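Could you show me just one protein sequence together with its fold in C-alpha coordinate form as a worked example?
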Amino acid sequence: MAKNNVIKLSTYTAKADDVFFFDNNIWMFIFCPLANYSKGKKQHHYSAFFKSLLSRKLHIYTSSLVLSEFANRYLRLDFDIVRSDPKQAGVYNNFKKDYVGSERYKKTVKEVKQQLKQIVSICQKCSDEFNSIDTNMVFELFETIGFNDSYYAHLATKKNWKIVTDDSDFIKTNLPSIGLTILSEAV
Protein backbone atom coordinates (compact mmCIF):
# COMPACT_ATOMS: atom_id res chain seq x y z
CA MET A 1 0.00 0.00 0.00
CA ALA A 2 1.06 3.58 -0.63
CA LYS A 3 1.94 5.84 2.27
CA ASN A 4 -0.54 8.42 3.53
CA ASN A 5 0.46 12.04 3.09
CA VAL A 6 -0.75 14.38 5.86
CA ILE A 7 -0.31 18.08 5.10
CA LYS A 8 -1.15 21.15 7.17
CA LEU A 9 -3.90 22.81 5.14
CA SER A 10 -2.66 26.37 5.70
CA THR A 11 0.67 25.45 4.03
CA TYR A 12 -0.88 23.77 0.99
CA THR A 13 -1.35 25.40 -2.39
CA ALA A 14 -3.86 23.58 -4.56
CA LYS A 15 -2.74 22.46 -7.99
CA ALA A 16 -4.92 22.83 -11.08
CA ASP A 17 -5.55 19.08 -11.29
CA ASP A 18 -6.31 18.54 -7.58
CA VAL A 19 -9.71 17.14 -6.65
CA PHE A 20 -11.06 17.39 -3.11
CA PHE A 21 -13.50 15.67 -0.81
CA PHE A 22 -14.58 17.69 2.23
CA ASP A 23 -15.36 15.77 5.40
CA ASN A 24 -18.53 16.84 7.20
CA ASN A 25 -16.63 18.77 9.87
CA ILE A 26 -15.36 21.15 7.18
CA TRP A 27 -18.91 21.84 6.01
CA MET A 28 -19.81 22.48 9.65
CA PHE A 29 -17.01 25.06 9.91
CA ILE A 30 -18.20 26.80 6.74
CA PHE A 31 -22.01 26.44 6.79
CA CYS A 32 -23.18 25.89 10.38
CA PRO A 33 -23.58 29.16 12.27
CA LEU A 34 -24.94 27.29 15.32
CA ALA A 35 -21.54 25.75 15.96
CA ASN A 36 -19.99 29.20 16.49
CA TYR A 37 -16.84 28.28 14.61
CA SER A 38 -16.50 31.68 12.95
CA LYS A 39 -14.34 33.02 15.77
CA GLY A 40 -11.53 30.51 15.37
CA LYS A 41 -8.33 30.34 13.36
CA LYS A 42 -9.24 26.92 11.98
CA GLN A 43 -12.49 28.23 10.56
CA HIS A 44 -10.57 31.05 8.91
CA HIS A 45 -8.11 28.63 7.28
CA TYR A 46 -10.82 26.24 6.05
CA SER A 47 -12.98 29.07 4.71
CA ALA A 48 -10.04 30.74 2.96
CA PHE A 49 -9.02 27.43 1.37
CA PHE A 50 -12.61 26.76 0.32
CA LYS A 51 -12.92 30.23 -1.26
CA SER A 52 -9.62 29.78 -3.10
CA LEU A 53 -10.85 26.48 -4.57
CA LEU A 54 -14.09 28.12 -5.68
CA SER A 55 -12.31 31.08 -7.26
CA ARG A 56 -10.08 28.68 -9.21
CA LYS A 57 -13.06 26.47 -10.12
CA LEU A 58 -11.39 23.37 -8.68
CA HIS A 59 -13.55 20.33 -8.01
CA ILE A 60 -14.97 19.52 -4.59
CA TYR A 61 -16.96 16.32 -4.32
CA THR A 62 -19.60 15.37 -1.80
CA SER A 63 -21.82 12.40 -1.18
CA SER A 64 -25.27 11.80 0.22
CA LEU A 65 -23.66 10.35 3.35
CA VAL A 66 -21.79 13.60 4.03
CA LEU A 67 -24.99 15.60 3.52
CA SER A 68 -26.79 13.27 5.91
CA GLU A 69 -24.06 13.73 8.51
CA PHE A 70 -24.29 17.50 8.09
CA ALA A 71 -28.08 17.57 8.51
CA ASN A 72 -28.05 15.24 11.51
CA ARG A 73 -25.22 17.08 13.28
CA TYR A 74 -26.81 20.49 12.64
CA LEU A 75 -30.15 19.31 14.08
CA ARG A 76 -28.44 17.67 17.09
CA LEU A 77 -26.56 20.90 17.78
CA ASP A 78 -29.80 22.86 17.72
CA PHE A 79 -31.44 20.30 20.00
CA ASP A 80 -28.53 20.56 22.47
CA ILE A 81 -28.80 24.36 22.43
CA VAL A 82 -32.56 24.45 23.02
CA ARG A 83 -32.45 21.65 25.59
CA SER A 84 -29.84 23.53 27.66
CA ASP A 85 -31.83 26.80 27.58
CA PRO A 86 -33.30 27.36 31.07
CA LYS A 87 -36.37 29.00 29.47
CA GLN A 88 -37.09 25.69 27.71
CA ALA A 89 -36.57 23.51 30.81
CA GLY A 90 -38.51 20.27 30.46
CA VAL A 91 -39.84 21.06 26.98
CA TYR A 92 -37.15 19.30 24.92
CA ASN A 93 -35.98 16.30 26.92
CA ASN A 94 -36.00 13.74 24.12
CA PHE A 95 -34.76 14.36 20.59
CA LYS A 96 -37.26 12.13 18.78
CA LYS A 97 -40.31 12.59 21.02
CA ASP A 98 -40.04 16.28 21.95
CA TYR A 99 -37.89 17.97 19.33
CA VAL A 100 -38.55 16.24 15.99
CA GLY A 101 -41.76 17.68 14.54
CA SER A 102 -41.79 20.72 16.87
CA GLU A 103 -41.94 24.26 15.50
CA ARG A 104 -38.30 24.73 16.52
CA TYR A 105 -37.35 21.60 14.58
CA LYS A 106 -39.27 22.74 11.48
CA LYS A 107 -37.56 26.15 11.59
CA THR A 108 -34.14 24.53 11.91
CA VAL A 109 -34.87 22.06 9.09
CA LYS A 110 -35.54 25.07 6.83
CA GLU A 111 -32.11 26.46 7.75
CA VAL A 112 -30.45 23.09 7.17
CA LYS A 113 -32.12 22.74 3.77
CA GLN A 114 -30.80 26.17 2.73
CA GLN A 115 -27.27 25.19 3.74
CA LEU A 116 -27.53 21.80 2.02
CA LYS A 117 -28.74 23.47 -1.17
CA GLN A 118 -25.69 25.75 -1.07
CA ILE A 119 -23.33 22.82 -0.59
CA VAL A 120 -24.96 20.86 -3.42
CA SER A 121 -24.80 23.88 -5.73
CA ILE A 122 -21.05 24.21 -5.12
CA CYS A 123 -20.00 20.55 -5.21
CA GLN A 124 -19.90 17.74 -7.65
CA LYS A 125 -22.20 14.95 -6.50
CA CYS A 126 -20.49 11.59 -6.36
CA SER A 127 -21.82 8.10 -6.39
CA ASP A 128 -20.81 6.23 -3.28
CA GLU A 129 -19.73 3.29 -5.47
CA PHE A 130 -20.61 0.82 -2.74
CA ASN A 131 -20.77 -1.98 -5.30
CA SER A 132 -17.09 -1.55 -6.18
CA ILE A 133 -15.57 -0.72 -2.78
CA ASP A 134 -13.79 -3.54 -0.99
CA THR A 135 -15.91 -3.69 2.17
CA ASN A 136 -13.37 -5.94 3.89
CA MET A 137 -10.85 -3.10 3.63
CA VAL A 138 -13.45 -0.65 4.95
CA PHE A 139 -14.20 -2.97 7.89
CA GLU A 140 -10.48 -3.38 8.59
CA LEU A 141 -9.86 0.38 8.71
CA PHE A 142 -13.06 0.76 10.77
CA GLU A 143 -11.10 -0.85 13.63
CA THR A 144 -8.95 2.31 13.70
CA ILE A 145 -11.35 5.11 12.68
CA GLY A 146 -15.13 5.53 12.37
CA PHE A 147 -17.06 3.64 9.73
CA ASN A 148 -17.94 6.70 7.64
CA ASP A 149 -14.34 7.91 7.80
CA SER A 150 -13.12 4.48 6.75
CA TYR A 151 -15.52 4.50 3.83
CA TYR A 152 -14.51 8.04 2.78
CA ALA A 153 -10.83 7.08 2.99
CA HIS A 154 -11.27 4.16 0.62
CA LEU A 155 -13.49 6.12 -1.77
CA ALA A 156 -11.00 9.00 -1.83
CA THR A 157 -8.12 6.61 -2.47
CA LYS A 158 -10.01 4.97 -5.31
CA LYS A 159 -10.87 8.36 -6.87
CA ASN A 160 -7.50 10.01 -6.11
CA TRP A 161 -9.20 12.75 -4.09
CA LYS A 162 -7.54 14.77 -1.36
CA ILE A 163 -9.55 14.66 1.88
CA VAL A 164 -9.97 17.98 3.67
CA THR A 165 -10.83 17.27 7.30
CA ASP A 166 -10.46 18.49 10.85
CA ASP A 167 -10.99 14.97 12.19
CA SER A 168 -7.92 13.83 14.11
CA ASP A 169 -8.81 10.20 13.28
CA PHE A 170 -7.39 10.84 9.82
CA ILE A 171 -4.16 12.15 11.32
CA LYS A 172 -3.53 9.21 13.65
CA THR A 173 -0.07 7.75 13.39
CA ASN A 174 -1.53 4.25 13.48
CA LEU A 175 -3.84 4.90 10.53
CA PRO A 176 -2.92 2.23 7.99
CA SER A 177 -1.24 3.53 4.85
CA ILE A 178 -3.68 3.39 1.95
CA GLY A 179 -2.34 6.22 -0.20
CA LEU A 180 -4.46 9.06 1.15
CA THR A 181 -3.61 12.74 0.92
CA ILE A 182 -5.10 14.46 3.94
CA LEU A 183 -5.23 18.24 4.32
CA SER A 184 -5.99 19.44 7.83
CA GLU A 185 -5.41 22.10 10.44
CA ALA A 186 -5.63 19.32 13.06
CA VAL A 187 -2.02 18.34 12.28
Notes: The chain has seven helices and six strands. The mean pLDDT is 90. The CA atoms of residues 43 and 91 lie 33 Å apart.
